[in-house]
Amino acid sequence: MTKMKAWILAARPKTLTASVLPIVATTGMVYGLRHEVQWWIVAFALLSSFCIQIGTNFVNDAMDFKKGADKEGRLGPMRVTQQGHFTFKQVMLMATAFFALAMAFGVPLVVHGGMPIVIIGLASVAMGYAYTSGPLPLAYHGLGDLFVIIFFGLVAVGGFHYLLTGEFNMDAVVLGLQIGFLNTILIAINNLRDIDGDREVNKKTLAVRLGKTGGRTWIGFLCIAPFLMGYYWLNKHLWYVYGAPLIAFPLGLSVAKKIFRNEPGVIYNKFLAQSAAYGLLFSILIAIGFQIR
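RESULT FIELD:
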């Protein structure tokens, strides 16, 4: 395997939809509600978001190896540190490089948005490190799911909405929760797949804390929660904003059913890909819904 291919695999490209969902959905909402969209903001926000997620993935790769969570026979995709393609130091340096890139891409956004964007940017980078590193690694204490809901949902949508409109409002909060729930499906499936191995090394993910039945129930909830939150749009008489994403619901229901019908194992990797497609389809459809409201 070439070094370039190993780095690409370590970035976990199949998970990067988590960075796309907030941008697609929020742009659709802002444009559909007749606000002006400055497309350079969209581009820089997407690049910065990509870099933060890739940096977080690299930290996760290195720290899980260091803490013994990644061992021979792991069920998930290849980890480059555990496989010996790169050293712990090399992967952490690459993570730092991507966080630095995220901050560089964020400079024009800070100039445009001011102190709120500074706070959001610094917090996002800090929490990217804290996901599996530091004195209280979030993923090792059952807080990983909450991290995703907040930073790949509420913060991502709310911050981006502020950049485009100059305001925070309840529309951004509701959309942020919808996107946050969708993105959390990825980590919830990942953690349920690895539940036995994580329990052995005392990695207390939410799946480990809830058990297999609780973990499955949590994933089922995450699959339907965006539609429960969607009643907010119905209350505002935005019928298509609620209705258009319903086209994606069968895919989400299918993912939930497969999780309940299959024991955690390698097959869950297929469900990860399907859940990523579900989230992306939902975000595109809700963006379209805002256009035809």
